[in-house]
Amino acid sequence: MKALGIVFSNIHDKYVSELTRSRTMASVPYGGRYRLIDFVLSNMVNSGITKVGVITKSNYQSLMDHIGSGKDWDLSRKNAGVILLPPYGAVDSNSLYKTRLEALKGILGFLTKQSEDYVVMTDSDKVQNADYADVLDRHEQQNADITVVYKHGNVSKSTAQQSIIYHVDKKTSRILDVMVYPDVRGMQDYCLNIFVLKRQLLIDLVVDAMSNGYTSFHRNILQPNCDTLKILGYRFEGYSATVDSLAGYYRCNMDLLDRKVLDDLFGNPERPVYTKVRDSAPTRYDAGNRVRHSLVADGCEIYGEVEDSILFRGVKISPGAKVKGCILMQDTIVSEHADLNCVITDKNVVIRDRRVLSGCPDLPFFIGKNMRV
Amino acid sequence: MIAMLLAGGQGSRLYALTSKIAKPAVPFGAKYRIIDFPLSNCINSNIDTVGVLTQYQPLVLNDYIGNGQPWDLDRAFGGVHILPPYQEKSGAEWYKGTANAIYQNLHFIRSYSPEYVLILSGDHIYKMDYGQMLEAHIQQKADCTIAVLEVPPEEASRFGIMATDERGRIVDFEEKPKKPKSRLASMGIYIFTAQKLYDYLTWDENDPNSSKDFGKNVIPAMLRQGEYLYAWPFRGYWKDVGTIESLWNANMDLLGEVPALDINDSNWRIHSRNPIEPPHYLGRSAEVQNAIVSGGCEIDGKVEHSLLSSNVKVGKDTRIEDSVIMSDVTVGKGVRIDYAIIDEGAVIGDHAVIGEPRSAGKGITVIGRGVRVEDGRSVAGGTILED
């Protein structure tokens, strides 16, 4: 049984406009050395999927830079590997897509040419180490038409407006109803935007939706077909976090300081998370530093104090500087006696001497790429 | 110019550290292996064809080099080639010396028709632009250029020592002399004009009394024949890591505010095969002073003046000082490690005591690859523990 991977790189960009100003959601940096798409691509590769199409829309320079030939995910293959699917890639694609369904229309030509029986579709706004092979197995065993992956968890006021909620039959795992952005709270079965189905079925559904002028995958394909197609739910039990806002981004980074989460995402030697190699030197801790409860990537030089923070590759913390509850992206420099609390710095930020900056977890202080403060 | 890298050395003075791997594959600097340095120097000097001659315990080394991709040496033309000894119609031979090893691979060198051949060894830690050395070689119209370093007089008898005239032309060369005449030591880095290399290696091969060694035979023979040998002075960090002590010292040279060897130099990156590990994690009780830490480590104890390679776990109430911990080592709780080198995959049980403080003068304690030290066990300073 062979499956083709399809990744949507842009769909949720608008929710973290700060981070996606110069990049796609897929290339948002995360966890000290990763980009969000690393989880998706690693999940694909670890599940035996070696052909992955990445649908892009705009702003995808950083994504192309990051993916390169795909060799870091072992996806530089002669007959497969990672394939970027830019907009305007087909003869009849004369406008930019707005929805998932429209994006799929745009790659119908690509889908038709492939030979894999199945398609695994995912977004790139989630952090999770998921075994798609198990989803595929279950899909085949139970003879499902479509399998959707969901998580049982808390839906809060802030996330409800972005959530797709399923009604899952507890006995048969069948999806009874699909609710698009409903006004609900509390423990729900929410959609992780991972779908498995036959490639031919996907093509048929998309062509049919096109002829009807439909635009929404959930409203026009899943919702009306709950009775006519066998749509099954697959409950994902591992750690899963969604980058649905800047606060959400902050939270799911900070989750990594919990060892259980760290172990869930990175602890399985069979399912490593790959990323682009940067060849940084190991991190140097100089005399007088005080670093506690933090995740620190390679290539850092640390003299100052760091607590409850995530430091990306190449960050420098000068003597006397204090960093608490911060996410400092690649090559951030914190100068002497600066004091940062709940700050997110994008790449290449310089914090000058004695600057005092503070945010809070619900509203972290964000400093854009290449800024000097 | 193509490079030939001699990587067959056993490194017997590294004892347990090289009982299962070749010396160039010995881990260094919390992330690298020794061979990363000459390979990175090659690619940083725009040399894209490198033959790596292997012989002793090549498995880890071969695996590590692979297709050369980490050093950007996976090329359609050139790239990195592993050259083990092989069987010929007339019989099979091991490499009998550095010169013989190159001689047996002359057909490889000739297939690239290089004008110049760079000979390197895989057991030194240094950053060098071989391009500058080649420029000097061409400018001097030399037949062979040897990179030289000034060494302290008391160390001179460990090296090939040469005397030069005022222009840098070598007039005398002695391998490991008892009474060194100068402080100019050969770094074991040679650039030959290709034809001269072919001529002298063939000549040396046919000399039954030769021990087939560059320093002992080939260089002296060229001098006798009046060839122009030029000593190219190198200034910078260079360390032979042939002994446990020098390996430990070279590792420690990476520490400090201004380290003797800067490996975080974006203009001269040291490339290596990167293990797939998340960033390292420091727990609430961790304290890391004057140390280098690689990816995947989880630290709850205290680490001082030490290097931790990837995926090292350090338990609570453990204290590690003046030590080199290689990758995938697990150190339990309440452990004390002083002045030691712990090789890959070793497991140190809770409350074990490894080595003695450096000030005790007992020497470096070595725990070999994959050795398990039981809970509560004490390993005396200077001990070498092997499977």
Outline the secondary-structure elements:
The complex is a heterodimer of chains A (373) and B (387).
Chain A: E1 3-8, E2 29-30, E3 34-35, H1 36-46, E4 51-55, H2 61-67, E5 81-85, H3 100-106, H4 108-113, E6 118-123, E7 126-127, H5 132-141, E8 146-155, H6 157-160, E9 164-168, E10 175-180, E11 186-198, H7 199-211, H8 217-222, E12 231-235, E13 241-242, H9 246-254, H10 259-266, E14 283-285, E15 290-292, E16 294-296, E17 301-302, E18 305-307, E19 310-311, E20 316-317, E21 322-324, E22 327-328, E23 333-334, E24 339-341, E25 343-345, E26 350-351, E27 356-358, E28 365-367
Parallel strand pairs in A: 1-4, 1-6, 4-5, 8-12, 14-17, 15-18, 16-19, 17-20, 18-21, 19-22, 20-23, 21-24, 22-25, 23-26, 24-27, 25-28
Antiparallel strand pairs in A: 2-3, 6-11, 7-13, 8-11, 9-10
Helix pairs in contact in A: 3-7
Chain B: E1 2-6, E2 27-28, E3 32-33, H1 36-44, E4 49-53, H2 59-65, E5 79-83, E6 87-88, E7 91-92, H3 98-103, H4 106-111, E8 116-121, E9 124-126, H5 130-139, E10 144-150, E11 160-164, E12 170-175, E13 184-193, H6 194-205, H7 214-224, E14 229-233, E15 238-240, H8 244-252, E16 280-282, E17 287-289, E18 291-293, E19 298-299, E20 302-304, E21 307-308, E22 313-314, E23 319-321, E24 324-325, E25 330-331, E26 336-338, E27 340-342, E28 347-348, E29 353-354, E30 365-367, E31 372-373, E32 378-379, E33 384-385
Parallel strand pairs in B: 1-4, 1-8, 4-5, 10-14, 16-19, 17-20, 18-21, 19-22, 20-23, 21-24, 22-25, 23-26, 24-27, 25-28, 26-29, 27-30, 28-31, 29-32, 30-33
Antiparallel strand pairs in B: 2-3, 6-7, 8-13, 9-15, 10-13, 11-12, 11-13
Write a brief caption for the model.
The complex is a heterodimer of chains A (373) and B (387). Chain A is α/β, with parallel strands linked by helices and 373 residues long. Chain A is built from ten helices and 28 strands.
